[in-house]
Amino acid sequence: MATPSDSPPGSAHAVYATLRNRFSNGEYAPGQRLTEAALAADLGVSRTPVREAIGRLLTDGLVVPAARGVAVAALTPAEAEHLFTLRADLEALAAELAASRQALGLLAPAEITALDLAVDRVEEAVNAHDPRTSAQANLALHRAIGAAAGNPFLQDALHRVWDRIAVTTVANLDDPHWAGAITEQHRAIVAGIRAGDPEVARKAAKTHIEAAGRAYRPAP
User: Fold this and answer.
1) SS3 category, 24
2) What is the pLDDT of residue 220?
3) Predicted local confidence at residue 219, as pLDDT
4) What is each CA distance from 1 to 38, 87, 139, 158, in whole angstroms?
5) What distance in Å separates the CA atoms of residue 40 and residue 193, rounded to the nearest whole number?
6) What is the greatest pairwise CA distance in the chain?
7) Would you say residue 3 has pLDDT above 80?
8) Which of 71, 119, 149, 209 is in Cβ range 3.0-4.6 Å of 94 for a Cys bridge?
């Protein structure tokens, strides 16, 4: 996935990457209006690269046309169902591949430790009743599992799904019933990876995402 450092500051690609990262981090709310002028002023760039970046965001489905600009896209219940069906299979595959790599000795001990620490950070944020930090820590954990899978094409597909869902993840992690359940599910995934058991890791990941789909509340 592109990052702002991949291109010169102020380029359309760098602006696009910065905005994509904001979507991933849940910094925008569904329906929030984004204008070229405001984004250009915020990022300290001209409106031309912002205009090009917005065009790419439209193609990605992350924004939709709105009066004098665009608005952050919200998922319909049907779209959310489709995305979570896809996400469950993608994340199950990522956990399975990560566990397979662990069984082959391809994951460094530091990578497993990093997964444990990522789970801890989600739990700490949830316990602090900080849904925005919880959402960011949750995404960081899922990204780490995706990276441990060692398949860049799978990672790219996951990033696209995560970005579409991220705009309402904050609200869902503000649900105490769901937030309280995710730590146990996260630890089950990481335990499967640590044990080098692809089937256990796959099942735990799929169970987790399917539960997330049932708990998901699309924006009004």
Assistant:
1) helix
2) 54
3) 57
4) 25, 17, 14, 10
5) 43
6) 54
7) no
8) 149
Exposure of 219 by Cβ count < 10 A (0-12 exposed, 13-18 middle, 19+ buried)? middle
Strand 63-66 to strand 69-72: parallel, antiparallel, or no bridges (unpaired)? antiparallel
- Which token pair is 116? 């444990």
Place of tokens 């070229």: 36
Q: Can you tell me whether residue 6 is helix, strand or coil? A: helix
User: Which has the closest alpha carbon to 162: 178, 147, 143, 185?
Assistant: 143
Q: Residue 84: name the closest of 206, 175, 177 by CA.
A: 206
Strand order in the sheet with 69-72: 33-34, 69-72, 63-66
- In this model, does residue 40 exceed pLDDT 50? yes
| Percent with pLDDT over 90 in the chain | 65
Asked if the model's pLDDT at residue 6 lies above 60, the reply is no
- Each residue's pLDDT tens digit, 54-65: 999 999 999 999
Tell me the mean pLDDT in the region 122-140: 89
What are the counts of helices (DSSP H) followed by strands (DSSP E) for the chain? 9, 3
What confidence score (pLDDT) does residue 175 get?
73
Amino acid at 71: A
C-alpha distances in Å from residue 124, one per residue of 22, 187, 191: 22, 14, 19
SS3 content of the chain, % helix, strand, coil (to 5): 75, 5, 25
Quickly tell me which residue has 């069984």 as its tokens.
103
